[in-house]
């Protein structure tokens, strides 16, 4: 019986990783379509494989019955389920009032449900450091190598797309910001998973990822990554290292050379944002667009009750999006708030925003406690700081890159937890 349990666990664990790998690359049609290689829709693929991934984790959890959840966390999960149900009912009411399709609610619920199940599943099914190794070999490296293959092929063939007047790398995940978010995540994951094996492969992986990150031209994610590096540098006291200053002698001139070489592209990007002579913002500037979007979303909160409880889950993702019957695109068109804090406010109100900050604070405190056992955890804490910064101008909470971040975060934390409580298994 014990052997069967181990075999079943290995089967579900491995299958879940492969299903997630497939889920990652259902995003590829966006890239293929963007560069004109084919005409393949991606939304149906994404939803089908997301559903398959959720089903696989639920089957594993229900049939293997290996849930190891403390009583306090059980109460939190039950409270979360009640909150989710309440905001689903509220969303149905909101969408009914607008005459909108309920599809938008289902899509967002599926995204949040996948993130919750990723956390529960991998916390319960990571039983040793060997399982973390499985994640690295079965999921992490194959996913990263395929991203390299597609992205570098696009660079080699100059397959870029005009985005806001600038040629930018679309990559395997569509929007340049999405590709940049994945690169930011994979760089941090590479550091966390390979920090104790800093051989030639480690440095090659980092350099290759940094090239793709900067090629995307995503200012938000590049700045977010610099926030991550700032915390890493301060924690490791780079300012006291001679190597840091030796590297600066090479890096700073290289950056200046790149800026000079790409001056036309940089000026073209800035010219889209504002008049480079008068510094006045253009009406088509993404900065102006974001401010208009924020104002439009805030205008939806027109009663005290809406400010308190929001409009229901999925509202900020669908209400101003074309393609949904009854959407408010005649007022404004926006695929989400481009600010996760505002997104939480619109969907869940001030009550939900308060819960969000309480949850973030609890997570940061937990990560801090684990750092005493394994200092590598601090990189995940700095990564969380960088995401909180990126959330100021992007929607990240319900994206696939967040699901992958949760996977690595939970799996690594579980191995550290085992080091403390069950050292024989770790």
From TrEMBL:
Localisation: Membrane
One cellular-component annotation, GO: membrane
The keyword RNA-binding appears for this protein: no
Transmembrane helix recorded as keyword: yes
Domain O-antigen ligase-related stretches: 205-357
GO molecular function, one term: ligase activity
Transmembrane annotation, as ranges: 7-25, 45-64, 76-96, 102-126, 138-157, 177-195, 202-231, 243-261, 344-364, 376-393
Organism from which the protein derives: Dawidia cretensis
The name this protein goes by in its record: O-antigen ligase family protein
Protein keywords: Ligase, Membrane, Transmembrane, Transmembrane helix
Recorded topology in the membrane: Multi-pass membrane protein
């Amino acid at each position: 019986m014990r052997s069967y349990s181990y075999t079943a666990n290995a089967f579900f664990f491995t299958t879940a990783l492969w299903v997630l790998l497939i889920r990652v690359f259902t995003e590829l049609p966006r890239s293929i379509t963007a560069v004109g290689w084919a005409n393949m829709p991606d939304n149906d693929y994404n939803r089908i494989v997301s559903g398959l991934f959720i089903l696989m984790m639920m089957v594993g959890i229900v049939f293997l019955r290996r849930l190891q959840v403390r009583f306090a966390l059980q109460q939190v999960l039950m409270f979360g389920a009640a909150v989710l149900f309440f905001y689903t009912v509220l969303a149905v009411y909101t969408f009914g009032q607008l005459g909108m399709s309920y599809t938008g609610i289902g899509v967002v619920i599926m995204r949040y449900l996948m993130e919750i199940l990723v956390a529960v599943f991998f916390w319960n099914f990571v039983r040793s450091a060997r399982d973390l190794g499985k994640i690295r070999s079965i999921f992490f490296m194959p996913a990263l190598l395929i991203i390299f293959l597609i992205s570098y092929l696009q660079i080699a063939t100059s397959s870029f797309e005009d985005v806001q007047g600038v040629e930018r790398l679309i990559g395997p995940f569509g929007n340049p910001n999405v590709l940049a978010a994945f690169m930011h995540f994979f760089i941090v994951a590479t550091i966390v998973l390979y920090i104790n094996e800093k051989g030639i492969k480690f440095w090659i992986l980092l350099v290759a990822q940094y090239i793709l990150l900067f090629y995307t031209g995503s200012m938000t994610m590049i700045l977010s990554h610099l926030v991550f590096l700032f915390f890493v540098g301060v924690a490791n006291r780079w300012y006291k290292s001679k190597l840091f200053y030796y590297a600066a002698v090479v890096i700073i001139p290289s950056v200046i050379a790149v800026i000079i070489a790409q001056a036309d592209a940089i000026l073209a990007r800035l010219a889209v944002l504002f008049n480079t002579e008068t510094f006045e913002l253009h009406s088509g500037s993404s900065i102006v667009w974001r401010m208009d979007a924020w104002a439009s979303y805030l205008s939806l909160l027109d009663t005290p009750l809406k400010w308190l409880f929001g409009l229901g889950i999925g509202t900020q993702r669908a209400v101003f999006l074309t393609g949904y019957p009854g959407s408010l695109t005649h007022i404004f068109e926006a695929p989400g708030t481009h600010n996760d804090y505002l997104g939480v406010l619109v969907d869940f109100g001030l009550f939900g925003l308060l819960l969000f900050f309480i949850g973030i604070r609890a997570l940061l405190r937990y990560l801090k406690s684990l750092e005493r056992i394994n200092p590598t955890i601090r990189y995940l804490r700095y990564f969380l700081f960088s995401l909180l910064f990126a959330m100021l101008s992007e929607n990240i909470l319900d994206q696939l890159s967040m699901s992958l971040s949760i996977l690595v975060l939970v799996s690594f934390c579980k191995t550290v937890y085992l080091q403390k409580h069950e050292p024989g298994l770790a």
